[in-house]
Amino acid sequence: MKKTAIKKLLLAGGGHAHIGLLRRLPTNRQTGTDITLISEQPYSIYSGMLPGWMAGHYDLAEISIDIKALCQKAKVRFVPACVGQVIADANKLVTTDKQSFDYDLLSLNTGADTAMQWLNGDVDHTDTVVPIRPLHHFVERWQQILIEAQRSDVYHLAVVGAGAAATELVMAAKFALQGINNNHKVSLVCGDELLADFDKNFKRRVIKQLDRHNIEIIYARAKGYSEGRLLTTAQSLNADAVIAATGVTGAAWTRDTDIKTVEDGFIAVNSAQQSVSHPNVFAVGDTSTRVDKVVAHSGVHAVFGGRVEADNLLAYLNNVPLQDYQPKKRTLYLLSCGDKYAIGSWGRYSLQGRWVWELKRQIDKRFVEAS
Ligand SMILES: Cc1cc2nc3c(=O)[nH]c(=O)nc-3n(C[C@H](O)[C@H](O)[C@H](O)COP(=O)(O)OP(=O)(O)OC[C@H]3O[C@@H](n4cnc5c(N)ncnc54)[C@H](O)[C@@H]3O)c2cc1C
User: Fold this and answer.
1) Does any domain span residue 13?
2) pLDDT by 10s per residue, the chain, length 371
3) N or C: at which end does the chain have fewer Cβ atoms within 10 angstroms?
4) Is the domain of 156 the same as that of 303?
């Protein structure tokens, strides 16, 4: 009898999509497939709960997903390493510590990096100006910021960014620093417009909450950091630390690949989340950009796109037709406001309250704790 060759499925990154895939694999296991997952960390920090952790509502374990344990349960080999290079013409992935992996099918879910171009290549301040991504670096740095704030009479923190994440982070930071010392000050530097992609009522609600927390909003573009001051197009301000939530750029490893990328290093994929240059490469979440329509880089699309992508990986292995990921027109966004209060947005509708925070807590916990 002819023996079927074992196929190698390589999962790069421990993002939302691969977490979903690992959770579904035990019941959906393909025989004849050898699966390996490579991720920088044995656990993944859930960004949706990060502001709640900063504000002191959760401990780190509560916002972390144990990727290694999920791999063990799903009988997937876990390799703690960082993807450094993908040579897709040779079906080969190389990690930054020079381990080499070949594959029949590759799935990329390594997320993105924080766009730091605004700092104009000034990398002397990496300790003071902290990008939100990678999250595990940010988590370490935030704990140091709290120690520094405990030692200071007046501590100035600036958050740079204009999206939902920046507003959540600035309110969480203010809530935490205020708990240490009332003199501590937090500013949000947001360019010309805050929450440009959101409905005006939602925006109004968020600005009211920023006011309630006494957060100074500076409508100017940050352009550098020098001698303890954040430089902006309008003014410079004291900043002992700066958190950058300035959007996403392609992951560093995408500078060393032959897979087609678009914009600034995002893997170009079609509606099936399949690379447009290499059919045996799939990518999903913040690592990828759809070429056929505009789909925002967000956790929601990493999760829902991830489900379709996971099915497509199995379909590809079994030689059956792929499905398209059809993103919903509207998605629910729940934005936490530092204390246990949140604002919800659904298209043109928005609402707020402590119960919205409780709803967010339950949804987030369900995601993290699902096994
Ligand atoms: C504070 C904050 C709050 C947010 N809240 C929301 C929200 O409420 N709703 C929403 O839709 N979006 C939200 N977002 C956006 C959301 O976090 C991202 O869009 C989402 O995490 C993208 O998921 P992903 O699976 O693509 O990648 P990620 O979640 O970034 O996961 C990537 C994984 O790959 C690993 N990895 C990275 N690089 C490498 C490498 N080179 N080699 C190996 N492994 C690697 C990482 O360690 C990580 O485990 C928020 C973002 C922030 C910063």
Assistant:
1) yes
2) 455 678 999 999 999 999 999 998 866 666 688 999 999 999 999 999 999 999 999 999 999 999 999 999 999 999 999 999 999 999 999 999 999 999 999 999 999 999 998 888 776 666 899 999 999 999 999 999 999 999 999 999 999 999 999 999 999 999 999 999 999 999 999 999 999 988 899 999 999 999 999 999 999 999 999 889 999 999 999 999 999 999 999 999 999 999 999 998 999 999 999 999 999 999 999 999 999 999 999 999 999 999 999 999 999 998 999 999 999 988 889 999 999 999 999 888 999 999 999 999 999 999 999 86
3) N
4) no
**Is residue 329 a part of any domain in this protein?**
no
Measuring from each residue's beta carbon to the nearest atom of ligand 1, which residues come in under 6 Å? 12-17, 38-41, 44, 47-48, 50-51, 82-83, 109-111, 132, 134, 165, 168-169, 251, 253, 285-287, 297-300, 302
Residue span of the structural domain in which 263 resides: 7-112+250-317
Look at residue 243 and tell me if it is in a domain: yes
CATH assignment of the domain containing 223: 3.50.50.60
Same domain for 208 and 172: yes
Q: Report the distance separating Cα 311 and Cα 322, nearest Å.
A: 8
Task: Give the 3-state secondary structure of residue 143.
Answer: helix
DSSP H/E element including 301: helix 299-317
Residue-wise DSSP of 29-57: PPTTEEEEEEESSSEEE-GGGHHHHHTTS
- Which residue among 317, 335, 360 closes a domain? 317
Do 220 and 282 lie in one domain? The reply is: no
Using CA positions, which residue lies closest to atom 11 of ligand 1? 299
Query: Which single residue is written with the structure tokens 């500078």?
Result: 255
- Tally of structural domains, the chain: 2
The atom number, within ligand 1, closest to the CA of 334 reads: 8
Which tokens sit at 51?
């502001």
Which ligand 1 atom minimizes the distance to the CA of 16? 25
Residue of 286, 290, 360, 367 to test ligand 1 pocket, by largest number of atoms within 8 Å of CB: 286
Query: How many other C-beta atoms are found inside a 10 Å radius of the C-beta of residue 134?
Result: 19
CA of 152 to the centre of ligand 1 (A): 32
